[in-house]
Amino acid sequence: MGQCPVNINFGDRTLNKWFAYTGTFTSGSNRVVSLKQNYDANVPAPLGTIGAVSITEYGSSIPGIQVNTSGGTDVFGGFPVVPNINGYQYDYSILLGSTNVNSNPAGGFVRGIGYVIDVPTGTGPYTMTYAYAMVLENGSHASIQQPLASATLMTNDSIITCASPQYFLPTNGGVLDIATANANGFRQSNVPTPNSVRNNESPFRVWTKNWTEVTFDLEPYRGQKVTLTFTAENCVPRGHFAYAYIALRNDCNGLMISGARTACVNGPTTYSIPELTGATYQWIVPNGWKITSDSNSNIITVLPGLQSGTITAREQNSCANLEATIQVTTSPPTVAGNLTGNAIVCAGTNASPITLSGNTGNVLKWISSADGINWMDIANTNTTYLAQNLNTTTRFAALVQNGGACSIDTAVGATIVVDSKSMGGILTPNDLQICQDQNKDASLKLLNSNGAVVNWQLSADAINWTNFAPAKTDTFYNITGVLAPTKFRVIVKNGVCNADTSTIANVGIFNERFPKAAVSPVDTTICFGTSTNLRANITIGTSYTWSNATTIYNAGNGLVNNLPFSINALAAPPTSTRYILSVKNGNCPNLLIDTFTVNVIPLVTVNAGRDTAVVLNQPLRLQATTNFADSIGLAYLWQPANYLNNAAITNPIATITNAVNTVVYTVKATTPQGCVGEDAVRVTIFKTQPDIFIPTGFTPNNDGKNDILKPIAVGITTIKFFSVYNRLGQLLFTTNEFGKGWDGLYKGIAQPPGTYVFIAQAVDYTGKIVNKRGTSVLIR
Questions:
Q1: Which of 218, 293, 287, 285 is nearest to 257 (CA)?
Q2: Cβ(507)–Cβ(479) below 8 Å
Q3: I want to staple 337 with a disulfide (CB 3.0 to 4.6 A). Which of 216, 217, 233, 358 is the partner?
């Protein structure tokens, strides 16, 4: 009674028993198909559908209808091309349409497939269930001309409307109604259209609708023929595409509930039935279970309780009244449990057992990580694991699940801390020869070790070793009290790893005393061009040498004639210099080396500025600059302090109120070490008001005297312009800079002797405009 039509689910992997058509719209119409190619279900391919797996778009070589027999993902929607809906895996699907919009003539592509269903006689539900997903490119046309996908169920004389939905992107005045599109399950894709963008269209105008299941009951039509048709139609003007995926179940025995038959207690679980157009829904779940979503829906989410039982679903519309039940059982939720076995081991050969306890559920696998971020699978499903031969600290965890319905949980991890192997390192120098009483440059240092120093050892024969008492745990040793050749080594241990010994250092003894001397000063600072004394008092030694001896005076001849022997040398380096005094005593091969560091403060260079002129009572800011950064803390002193607001800063203000002709200010800059530099500036005082003085003549003959015609600004803060013209009114020169003037040239050509006109404008220190106009004679 419930056997489905042959190949209703494309189980033949072809379009057998299905009819098909392709075509195009009449552009500008209300979905009028102008050209159409039919493919009969009783005719072999390529004229019919028997054996066909694809059919091209009308007048094109691009497929417009294809059977999908393998998996894949839609590029715009990211959903699978063959669906799995809440646990029900469809076998095949049809791709109806393409992204092609280059139809010819102008109207958009249409394509469709259909099946004439011979509904068997009898009683009871006879259901057809299909799933659909679609991709539509928004064209912002009137809704009736938008890309569209549809399903239509027809008798021989009418459409069964309750089983014949249409899907399109609704518009209002040519603008997409986004709220309605979202409410209908459409989502905007983040993948741009492959087609050209016109006018102000966005390239991100593709919308997708994920897989949805639909069912309808053909019980009222038993013994009759009905036709099921699916279509995908581009927009009528042709510039925007539509395509849809269609998949059908090969089960016609009535309503079926999809979802887990075994549910996890308190684990959110989804159950669904295929959608029935315009239907109401009712769900009944076992006692203690709670529906957490809208129950008037074909999809519900529940929190299972402790009891097993029956789930019942009902859906009803004007065409059908369907009911389905399934038996469900419950299992307790997963409890991951705890891991024991934290340990510390030494790298290399090691073994540490880890045990899982207190878990509910089975171990799926173990995992491990050296950084807590990247994890590696361990193929072990037991509750114990033996971690072996680790070289790095590693964290272990077990993944536990109580049946397929419950979620996977991870047990609290156990950590095996791995100490790297002890490394004794290198004792350097490996061969050290010292003289009697040598307490300088007589030390051993441990390098490249790994671990903590446990103790040092010494031996006369490298066989019998004696520990230092008390234990010495430093990485260096200043040798003292050694009277005979001795060997040294260091014991190093890292964590739980076995101890290791360093390389052996041999220390030999010369039967000669080590040189001895006292020096001062070890470090000193002087000013450039000065000197300092370097003093040494040698109490043991026979000779000495100096480094950088070219800048040392009274350094001696290098021989120690008697003891104690005093040296009082004079050092006068031009830059900071290190002087090394090396003292030797007899046959002792080791030198006593002492270093004197003489830091030289560079020559202090001061610039007090260019000589200038002012009028009486005009404030003049002086400015001293040096070759030192301001941060070193130079001290400044201007002399005389007459007329200055502050004589101890770099930039005092001078306001000369007495009728003197000139004042020469000298500024001294002193470093914190007492090094001094100085410079002077001459200030000429005019008894006039602020003005611009221009010579009445000049001689540009390059003799260094009166070669430039320039303004002498007194009491002026800004020169707006100083311009020179010839008798024809031609501008020959202009400037607004102090100290600049005309050299008698125009465009590189010397101008003839004669009278020239100048015009000047400036601003004095009170803000008043000063104008000057006159003539000056060029003399050659």
A1: 285
A2: yes
A3: 358
